[in-house]
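Translate sequence into structure tokens.
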Amino acid sequence: MEWFSVLSLALGSAWTSGINLYATVTVLGLLQKFGGTKLPGGLEVLDNWWIIGVAGFLYLIEFVADKVPYVDSVWDVVHTFIRVPAGAIVAYAATTELDASVHVIATLLGGGLALSSHGTKAAVRATANLSPEPFSNWALSLFEDGVAILGTVLAVIAPVLILIVIAVFLVFFFWFVPRVVRAADDQRDALVCQRQRFPRRGPAVRRKKFSFGKIETMERLFQILAAILAGVAAFFAWRGNWDATFVTAVFGAVSFFLSVRFQVKSRLNAREAERQKEMMKDEG
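Result follows.
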């Protein structure tokens, strides 16, 4: 495989490992065993029947555990210490034949992608467990299995497409995480206020604090990242490497979109803070 396909496979497999590690390993092994695909670097050992069998057996256990409310959340907590390192290892093994600098970067990105996909899955499952019916867990579990299996196949046969899928996921991830943080803050403050019998703080106060502290910082970081990626894309275009140009441009566009989103959020929170101040003056 050329370096672009290897890197896409490494990042795609690391991302799906955060969703379902055992399905990822099983599919990669079967693709090499029967699909005539030669996996890069150290991943070529996955066509061993022992590895396929153990991974398939563990996948069956996870397939059942993932359908049981609360058991799935416990399973996710335990696998925080398995999926994330495994995602980095998969990326590491896939890129052993590439340049050392690319090798290290791919490993770091693989661990980060596995953490983001695993964290998103665990948060969504914890929210679904608030519902008394089990059907949402079953539907989410089947959807996650499908994403992990299809994503692994795309990582092997469609390197550009899997990177687009990851980019779309990252947009959702950065949209989703602040809402999870605010929900956790709401729950924490509700418990504190209940114990101390104090009036609960309004959500606008917390959002103001989050806005002026973290949102503006994230806005600047994504603006800088978008500018850097634009320069890198221009460099690849100058060198005539159009695959790398396309991928870098996509990630640059995602970074720019996220910077705009944080900018809009910051301005909306600033307006909300001003409105709260005016209301306090009127009440005074």
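Note: The first helix runs from residue 3 to 34.
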